[in-house]
């Protein structure tokens, strides 16, 4: 990982690989995040992008999320977004990402998916 303001972690929860991101997903971090996201997607059948630790998502970040979603769809894999209330959730909804990817409020929601 570079010195850019984004951090990652992943864990398995209820059959989902939960990829947690913290910091900012913007033009300075989007390429790195895309590469890491592709690695995460390559090792699972179901990926949950936990964006609840992000403080900001730019259009470059939205593009990264959409590309991951498209890659998941092409590979026949499942992908969802975890995002609590706040500015990031508002950005996701304003960009209408919910038309392409299911957005859940918390990791606990994965128990019923």
Describe this entry's structure for a reader.
The chain is 33% helix and 34% strand. It has helices spanning 30-42, 59-74, 87-94; strands spanning 6-13, 16-25, 46-57, 78-82, 102-104. It has a five-stranded mixed β-sheet, sandwiched between helices. Strand 4, helix 3 and strand 5 form a beta-alpha-beta unit. Helix 1 runs parallel beside helix 2. The chain is globular, with a radius of gyration of 13 Å. 30% of the residues are buried. The mean pLDDT is 93.
Q: What topology does this entry show?
A:
Layout: E1 6-13, E2 16-25, H1 30-42, E3 46-57, H2 59-74, E4 78-82, H3 87-94, E5 102-104
Parallel strand pairs: 2-3, 3-4, 4-5
Antiparallel strand pairs: 1-2
Descriptive keywords:
single chain; 113 residues; alpha/beta; 33% helix
DSSP strand (E) fraction? 25-35%
The total count of helices amounts to 3
The string of secondary-structure elements, in order, is EEHEHEHE
Query: Which structural class do you get from the secondary structure elements?
Result: alpha/beta
Unreliable residue stretches: none
The biggest beta sheet reads:
5 strands, mixed
What is the rounded Rg? 13 Å
Mean pLDDT: 93
Distance between the termini: 31 Å
Number of β-strand runs = 5
Helix content: 25-40%
Strand numbers in spatial order across the main sheet: 1-2-3-4-5
Q: Can you tell me the overall shape?
A: globular
Give a short summary of the structure.
The chain is 33% helix and 34% strand. It has three helices and five strands, in the order ββαβαβαβ. Strands 1-2-3-4-5 form a five-stranded mixed β-sheet, with helices on both faces.
């Amino acid at each position: 990982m570079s010195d850019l303001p984004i951090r990652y972690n992943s864990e398995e929860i209820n059959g989902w690989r939960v990829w947690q991101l913290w910091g900012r997903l913007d033009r300075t971090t989007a390429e790195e995040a895309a590469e890491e996201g592709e690695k995460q997607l390559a090792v699972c059948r179901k990926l949950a992008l936990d964006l609840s630790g992000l403080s900001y998502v730019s259009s470059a970040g939205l593009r990264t999320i959409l590309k991951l979603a498209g890659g998941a769809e092409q590979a026949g894999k499942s992908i969802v977004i975890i995002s609590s209330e706040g500015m990031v959730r508002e950005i996701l909804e304003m960009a209408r990402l919910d038309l392409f990817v299911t957005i859940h409020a918390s990791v606990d929601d994965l128990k019923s998916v």
